[in-house]
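Example record for the data management plan.
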Amino acid sequence: MLSSSLRPAINRLIDPAAAMLARTPLTPDALTIIGTVGMSAGALALFPTGHLFAGTLVCTFFVLADTFDGALARAKGSTSVFGGFLDSTLDRIGDASVFSGLAAWFVLGGHSRLLAGVALFCLVAGSLVSYAKARAQSLGLRCDVGFAERAERLLIVLVAAGLAGLGVPYVLPAGLWVLAAASVVTFGQRVRAVHSEAAAAPAAKQAPHQGTAQPQAGADTGGGR
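Corresponding structural encoding:
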């Protein structure tokens, strides 16, 4: 999984910058909010109007800015359960903005209502992929399987949108279809993994059941989703 394998290298790159930011009044939660607001504004303002390349640049900038929140929290010594919860929750808003903006473009630009539906399907499937892991972790299971985590999903959709904005034909439809298929496969892998882990786990670890436990705050943070 890309996010897991690259995280140590990414941390080595951003930790020095985070150490400098730690000397400012900027808080990790504020950085999380800024990243989400900027990404959402860029996606919803630029994608529906057909400015795909510009929208990709804006979204990419704020996605990268959002990666600093964890490093800033470590540098300030202010990591918290709420910070993990906020980051994970606002990630869903950023994802929704990107795929909703692209869906609006396919409808308003007259390109394809089918592809608008595919974009929304990618949004829903991606949320299910993330929820499956968070719910599994709340039950004491790992669920560390599957390719289409959040980093991979954003990489695919933003690269495809950016190339489409530069005039590369068919790349955005292809990217969305690939992402839709990858999300379905990843969701299936996670359901299967949880089924296997739960069957092998001691009975005491299987006590939480449907409706009796909610995903722990931050369970879907700190790595790929």
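Summary line stored alongside the record: The domain at 2-206 is CATH 1.20.120.1760 (Four Helix Bundle (Hemerythrin (Met), subunit A)).
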